[in-house]
Please model this.
Amino acid sequence: MAIPRPLRALAIVSAFLLFYLLFQAFRTPPTIHGPGDLEHELPNEPTLQEYGEPPPPLWRADGYAADNPDSPRINATLLALVRNEELDGMLVSMRDLERTWNSKFNYPWTFFNDVPFSEDFKRLTQMETKAKCNYELIPKEHWAVPSWINSDLFDESAKMLEEQEVQYGPMVSYHQMCRWNSGMFYKHPALQDVRYYWRVEPKVHFFCDIDYDIFRWMNDHNKTYGFTINLYDAPQTIPTLWPETEKFMAAHPEYLHENNAREWVVDSKRRPEHNIKAHGYSTCHFWSNFEIADMGFWRSKPYEDYFEHLDRAGGFFYERWGDAPVHSIALGLFEDKSKIHWFRDIGYQHIPYFNCPKSPKCRGCVTGRFTDGERFLFKEDCRPNWFKYVGMD
Model:
């Protein structure tokens, strides 16, 4: 029986529409050019270029047994601010870092908490490493909301942050954490004789075998700070951070290093809307959930004076100043930019971003991948600015 002509026409149109919808769903996304379009600003993505290790000298894993009192280890620690209820996530991070690096060098772990660690936390974390684990309680005076913070003003500010959909804005503990990570952790008595630290957070991943003592490398090459991921911050969280920084610099012009990275800090070309909303700050920062650093910088007079100025300004609580932009601005202004190092050989992930180098030593991540999230996240990568103004070291 013949199909009526109108039905045949309807079938043809339906098939065409189905084909068109499938084509739109699976075709290659269109090219988008403009500020923040990282996919086209980095046609030669550095992590797609094969890379081995940083320049020597490199200390190999000889004599680093955990029970060797004469090992080449220097005064450094793996450092984590973590809650008891984050135990499972912390074990994930420890297993990765022990497998890829620390099982060879056995640097101690130092865990911090604002409440005592549970016996389960202590037992299970110590089982993940042969190195010594230290469990430290944060002094109340280091964690408490400062006396000069007005609680009513904080409540109003928290409401405003919530209305702007600022993540963690209303949480007092998050503000306390940002302040502690910015200017308190290195003052803890347990770190008094420790110079270097590697910050490790729960639920992060490490993908590449690292066969040299990273702390020794930092020391031998006179490096102050090491990072893997370089991002833009949300400008609505830090609207007065840069104006307060300018006030501080006007009072202390002598603290500006002659070989600074100020251009990276204040760039207004790549994402001009960020610079406008942050009143002159590009919002570029080192993502500090991974940082390897010399605490001598935080203990220096320029940084201590800077932190004191910011602390008194109240932005850790009235806004949501994070330790990442605070650390990054200070490094960009007060430190020699040649002492800041991109650890391109360390495969790392903190959801949703990656540092995944091309190396036979890496397993479990996609080479060159920056994010496995939505495409708009590509514009959050600030590495192009860092490479432009500083370089890849």
Q: What stands out?
A: The radius of gyration is 24 Å. The CA atoms of residues 60 and 212 lie 5 Å apart. Confidence is low (pLDDT under 50) at residues 20-40.
